[in-house]
Amino acid sequence: MRAPIVAFVYTKTDPHGVPEAANASERAYRQLRGEILDGDLPPGTGLLEVEQAARVGVSRTPLRAAIARLSADGLVAGRTGRGFVVTEVSIERIRELYELRQALEEQAARLAAQRGDPEVFRGLRDRFLVAPELLLQGEHGIRLYYDLIDELEQAIDTAGANPYLVRALDAVRTHLSRIRRLARGNKARLRAAAAEHLLIIDAIIAGDANLAAHATHVHLHQSLTSVLAATDEDPATRAD
Amino acid sequence: MRAPIVAFVYTKTDPHGVPEAANASERAYRQLRGEILDGDLPPGTGLLEVEQAARVGVSRTPLRAAIARLSADGLVAGRTGRGFVVTEVSIERIRELYELRQALEEQAARLAAQRGDPEVFRGLRDRFLVAPELLLQGEHGIRLYYDLIDELEQAIDTAGANPYLVRALDAVRTHLSRIRRLARGNKARLRAAAAEHLLIIDAIIAGDANLAAHATHVHLHQSLTSVLAATDEDPATRAD
DNA sequence: CGGCGGGTCTCTGTATACAAACAACGGACG
DNA sequence: CGTCCGTTGTTTGTATACAGAGACCCGCCG
């Protein structure tokens, strides 16, 4: 049987594998968001409606919607009378972000330990056991490793079954991905992180909520320490 | 010295004390948000752009912006092809909201205990000591009591000095105010809450972060219990 | 030489017109 | 009598035109 020829414009993917939205607002939002997170639009960049609309290739109306969403995300901030600015990323902000992240991820780990399906996490455990080998495979392996971490986070989110918490975590992760570039590819840290993740997974499998929360706390403490150390070396990070 | 006379149109207040925004988007957002939180637009209500634009008295463009913000707040949800709907409030959602709230408020209390100015909280302590008397003064006293709680929350936010955390807490409180109506005015509960708040304040004054966090945990546990008990009696709350 | 004020010019905020997509309805055909 | 398809109406998505507010700049005055 031949599949019917239907144009699913909403899920059509471009050559780069990035889902291409049908409507202009979504396209503009994704493009600007990606450019901010990738650093193509560095902090402090002023965004003017007409200018950005022309660049992205949409009219001002959908672009305004996109900027409004970015503003709600906290990626840009309104500047009275003179458009919007890409928000700054300072060391102080990183510390603050981690304070929120700790609260959220500890709770998520707790809930996952209480409600999670152990089978799911046993599967993840097996893959984290061999994760250190990925680090020997260069840039591609590192990407796979980060994908694995994403899967763990998503498994914890699913197990927690709390839409409010997931929403808050998504917001935090958006900001995190902006600073993750700084510490990316530190293999010694990634190897240590794998061990920390394993402990979290074991705690969830065992249904030990307190251990899961405390292991998450330890993991994030180490993560923050590593990020701060990386930013100390990297002069690109400005501490306003 | 006389303060300069400046027209702050953005903060100008109307006769009812409600800040009146200069621009139509803000006005539409405030009105719709207020109506949703007050229950004037009950869960399940469909919002059509033209209809709401006419009712609020703005054109479709600012109204779309308002609805986009409400959607980001989680107060309305997009319905493919047929406008937006006011989101439901179920008992399950209340539980989930409290799970997030606990994580956030515990962290906020912790930070306040570490960084807060004891003098500020000593002032609040004095006022909470006499708070039970307010409950004897009818509806007006109860409103003053809630205002006092708001002040405490704001003092904790300020002491925590973490914009990300405050932002997340604001989002939670938005949803909370939708359900607070259900349990409003339960005097026995309010009296008990005053004692719990006092313990939190004392912990912050003493700089005891763990006690502040645990006292907050206890307080929220009692609060949730009280809310759930109230919804059991109140058939208006649907559990989908 | 510095501060103040008027003018201009750019940019945002709002309204409206147009296009496209989705849903619902009705009719015709199997 | 049921199902499929075409048509119509309603609703959102986008573009653009217009108006108002704010900033910048230049010239004037102290």
Structure, explained:
The structure is a homodimer of 240-residue chains. Chain A is mostly helical and 240 residues long. Helix content of chain A is 68%, strand content 3%. Chain A contains ten helices and three strands; from the N terminus they run H-E-H-H-E-E-H-H-H-H-H-H-H. Chain A has helices at 24-37, 49-56, 60-73, 91-115, 118-129, 131-134, 138-160, 163-180, 187-206, 209-233, and strands at 46-47, 76-78, 84-86. In chain A, strands 1-3-2 form a three-stranded antiparallel sheet. In chain A, helix 1 (24-37) crosses helix 3, helix 4 (91-115) packs parallel to helix 9 and helix 9 (187-206) packs antiparallel against helix 10. Chain A is globular, with a radius of gyration of 20 Å. The interface between A and B is medium-sized, with 27 and 27 residues. Chain A binds a DNA duplex (30 and 30 nucleotides) through helix 3.
Give short descriptive properties of this protein.
homodimer, 3% strand, mainly alpha, disordered N terminus, 68% helix, DNA-binding
Helix content of chain A: 55-70%
Mean pLDDT of chain A: 88
Walk across the major sheet of chain A and give the strand order. Answer: 1-3-2
Largest sheet of chain A: 3 strands, antiparallel
Q: Largest interface, with Cβ-Cβ < 8 Å?
A: A-B, 27 and 27 residues
Please count the helical segments of chain A.
10
Task: Give the overall shape of chain A.
Answer: globular
Rg of Cα set of chain A: 20 Å
Note the quaternary state here.
homodimer
Distance between the termini of chain A: 62 Å
**What is the succession of H and E elements of chain A?**
HEHHEEHHHHHHH
The total of beta strands of chain A comes to: 3
Q: Which secondary-structure class do the elements of chain A indicate?
A: mainly alpha
Percent of residues in beta strands of chain A: under 5%
Query: Which segments of chain A are poorly predicted (pLDDT under 50) over 5 or more consecutive residues?
Result: 1-18
